[in-house]
Amino acid sequence: MKKKQDMLSGSIFGGIMRFALPVMLSQLLQFNYTFVDNIIVGRYASTNALAAVGNVGAINAFVIGAALGLANGFTIPVAHAYGADDKRGVARYAGSSIVIAFLTGLVIVITAHILSTPLLKLIGTPDEIIGLSASYVNILYFAVPLQMLSNNFTAISRAVGESKKPLYFYTVSVIVNLILDLLFVKHFGWGVKGAATATLISHGVAATLTGIYIFRFNDKVDIRKEDLRLNKSVAWKQIKLGIPVSLQFTVTSIGSMALQSAVNSFGANVIAGFTAAARVENLTNIPMSGIGVASQTFTGQNFGAKNSERIIKGTGTLLIMGITASVIMSLVIRFAGPPTVSLFMSERNEEIMAAATAYIKATARCYSLVAVLLVVRNCLQGMGFTYANTIAGVGELAGRLAVAFIFKRLIGFAAVCYASPAAWLLADIPLIIIYLSKMQKTKTGEIYENRRHTEKQQGNGIV
Hints:
The model is unreliable at 1-5 (pLDDT under 50). The longest helix has 36 residues, at 87-122. The chain has helices spanning 12-44, 47-55, 57-74, 76-83, 87-122, 127-140, 144-159, 165-187, 191-217, 232-264, 268-284, 286-304, 308-341, 350-364, 367-382, 387-411, 413-417, 419-444, 446-458. The radius of gyration is 21 Å and the shape is globular. Helices cover 84% and strands 0% of the residues.
């Protein structure tokens, strides 16, 4: 198999940067789905509409995060097969991931519609926005199978070292989303329903374009008809990798919903301020997240190639890159965050601005914690140790629950502002312990012996 050498040989820093930059731009474009929705809804609908869209953020993370976490785990063996120069293994795992991603998406969309309104009530959604929140989210959930497919196709591309092409496809889908948002919300006056419909259609465009590329134009992935038949042993192996990643998103999202419940007790203006600030945080988080995605591909390919020395050197480089990016982004969010929040409002509201600014200042002080979290978690994930994701998710849950149910009563909204840093810290501690243990075993080669023994017992060697 002709390999893209950037991740498997040559300059580690250069290879990671060439891979990570398109990933960052792709994530920026994906982020624009909700960012654009929030701005257009806030400016052309109402403050209640903005609060309604923001209110479902934690629930969306619970449902969609769980779905995409599964899809992310499904493609880990693709990177391992690629690193091991196993062309048929790449196609077999890629084809299986497509089938189970779509079937899982159908199950999730049905479940999500059943649970949406009870979940909105559970987090204490104010009466004045619960109808708007339900209208928005119930349309948005129809996009889950499409999101799972487009993210799965993208993950396959990245697993074999291709990060540029997905950027082109997401550019098209974001442009479609922007045009339809303006048409449906501003001109047709459809409010939150219009924003959700625009997002649904644009996800369909992304799934179509990324799918055409994988099946027709990516010469590193030769998927045949037989690869799209459900193979129980292959599918189960991928599901076992995907479940811990999904649980991490699910457990983290439970904490986010608890935190959203705490925020909801402060009223619609604070909800709107928290929503706007969280969107700005998500935006400045993209460089660290992009480096995290590169971490998974880098370690996944080199783990498949049994290149332990390169894994050890690479994870050190990745940590330096992530922490450096976090320091830069801390300055960006601190000084550019409050002016950006004003974009969400048709006219200035001091209560909204005060809540948003307090949240931004707290986040800026602690951004290096999230850089460590994203790099270490994704390095472990790339090598197939996805159970670490669940452990980290429990740590994040503990941090957010402590804030939502204990510290909020003591220091009010200030506790909410430090919920994410607390969650990051409590996730970092177990991840670092696991990471140091696995790196020691990687140095001695024990990690490959253990994996080979496990796979032999299960009767389905990885690659």
